[in-house]
Please model this.
Amino acid sequence: MPSKSLSAAFVRSAQPGRYCDGDGLYLLVKKTGKKFWVFRFKPKGGKPHEMGLGRAGEGHNCVMLAEARNKASVLFKQVKAGSDPLHIRDEAIAAKKAAAVKAVTFREAAKRYIAGHAASWKNAKHASQWTATLTSYAYPVLGDLPVSAIETAHILAVLEPIWSTKTETASRLRGRIEAVLDYAKTQGWRSGENPAAWKGRLSLALPARSKVSKVEHHAALSWKQVGNFMSQLASQKGIGASALQFAILTAARSGEVRGATWGEVDLTAALWIIPAERMKAGREHRVPLSAPAVAILQEASE
Model:
């Protein structure tokens, strides 16, 4: 066919085959009747290649003849200039992906981290606690920053205002920021060292937590006072007092007691079986129940 030989009418009625329009542009009609625009070229010193320019036609998402000719004209000039249109296209796609990666913000990375790890956290409140601390303290400074741009100075801007006054919160916050940035690195969103790491990083800029705020534990109850204390609890009404009695009698953690269900308890066998997913060690724990412990459960079930 001569150069620029196709027409819109021909494109609409074309039968299966390959038809040249000129400047490397071809109309490809498959046996199924589907039609596509193809640009055929031979780069300097290389073998012939083809590039798809879209589906031919006049419907939705189709490329009309005039648009196909414009695309082919640009590509034809690139080939004439000694360039490879496929390489140019691939470089553009790679640049676009790189720009998208660099644009991932700390807020977005944190949300993805929490969503991906929430199912593995034993405490259902853990995800909400993460979100709350990051929203209150980290997002105002880091939220809209690309994770690739976050440096030590940004982390210090978050932590320094609360390091001395809310040391425990600040310490947990630092660990959570560090985890998010480590996650971002594994996703390819940032590179280099983690600016929220403590050793060799923030330890050089912030005083150790132990030197800022000393932990003050509640005074332990003397074993001589336990009997009297249990009597006082027994005289009090309410689920809180009963739960505390039960925790003392079973030597269980408060979270294990609060999360207990009737399905875990066998009153006939006087046995409480705490499933592995509720245990800190991740192993099933069997607790023999004393008569007073069974009595507390029987009273609670009435």
